[in-house]
Amino acid sequence: MNLYIVTDNRKIHTSFASLKKSRRHTVRFLSPPELSRTSNLISGPSLLYLDAAAYTEKKLFSLVTFLSSSALTVGVIDARGIIADVAELFYRGARDYLGPSLVKQGISPKRLIRFTAASLPGAKKDVSPKAGNAASAPSVPLAKKWEDLTPGTEYRFHMLFLELDGYQNINQRVSETAVDTLLDHFQAAVSHILKPAKGRLWIWNDFGGIALFPLSVKMTSVVQVCMRLLLSRRLISVDQKELKLLLSYRMVLFQGTTVYRERGKTGRIISDSVNTLSHIGLKFAAPGHFYITEDFYRKLPHEIKKCFTDAGTHECTALYRMKRPARY
Predict the structure, then answer these.
(1) What is the span of the domain harbouring residue 39?
(2) Any domain includes 129
(3) Which terminus has fewer CB within 10 Å in the chain: N or C?
(4) Residue 142's domain is classified under what CATH number?
(5) Distances (CA, A) of 9 to 15, 30, 83, 113
(6) How much of the chain, in percent, has pLDDT values that exceed 70?
(7) Count of C-beta atoms within a 10 Å radius of residue 93
């Protein structure tokens, strides 16, 4: 296993001392300026860790998004605990987070083996259930009613990833105020359409986020409101008057577990399910499309099943894509 550690802090080197002694791993330290010259040369089983202290938060998040979309496995070293919203790192594609206590005690070969087995594409898994399978976490309680949830407790939810497409250059074309107005309108429209299935926006970062649905809501009902959301894009676009844009967004519906905290207080949440869902949305989902996992597809009545087609798999998760009308 090749490890690339991007840092200009020599104290970070000691955290990887045991890995440097291991014959099974190669550890190379890079300065931040060296990263741009090296990232496209990294190949084979490799992990790339970014030192959070070497970048501004905005630059760090942008780097994680860019490197993850380039099929690199990215982790973040946060020796000083300066990242306020760790969940956003995973939403943007990070695979690992090394916080202050872990950096202080050092990264052992055993931890690396466990991490690569669970997270590295193509690696053998230690657990048999597929990601997105409702049976993968039998000991985690179901989130049945919003009012019964206790912040800080892990629950199983229906989860929806959604993100606006083509937003990368929008700030160069329109004013920041207009963009903020557009996002407020879009979030309000999403919340309104998801409400009949008790769906709520939970995490929101820039141009996309994750919504949660209680497990007491039938899978078919959740799929139906999501289908309605995709088909409502022209109405949502017309209703917003600031920008004359025809909105496009991609969505992925998934079932998984996460520690629940109220919206706006999710900064320290680390969830494999949120991580997996975000990877599907960012790396697999095509613009303007809606996907569901096999768990949802199996539960649908025949009339609704006909609206979906096999879309293949991503990291062992079987996915089905909604068929769109000709004049979508």
Answers:
(1) 2-119
(2) no
(3) C
(4) 3.30.70.1230
(5) 11, 10, 17, 25
(6) 84
(7) 23
For residue 284, the SS3 value is helix
Say if 124 falls within a structural domain.
Answer: no
Query: Do 143 and 279 lie in a common domain?
Result: yes
Contact, 242 vs 178, CB < 8 A? yes
What is the Cα–Cα distance from 186 to 180, expressed in whole angstroms? Answer: 10
Residue 90 belongs to some domain of the structure: yes
Tokens 């497990």 correspond to: 215
User: What is the chain's length?
Assistant: 328
Which tokens belong to 286? 């095509």
Which of helix, strand or coil describes residue 302?
helix
Same domain, 150 and 208: yes
Tens digits of per-residue pLDDT, 16-73? 888 888 777 788 888 888 887 766 566 556 789 999 999 999 899 988 888 887 667 8
Give the number of other CB atoms < 10 A from CB of residue 79.
Answer: 20
Structure-block tokens of residue 197: 């299935």
pLDDT tens sequence across 244-291: 778 899 999 999 888 888 887 766 566 788 888 988 998 899 999 999
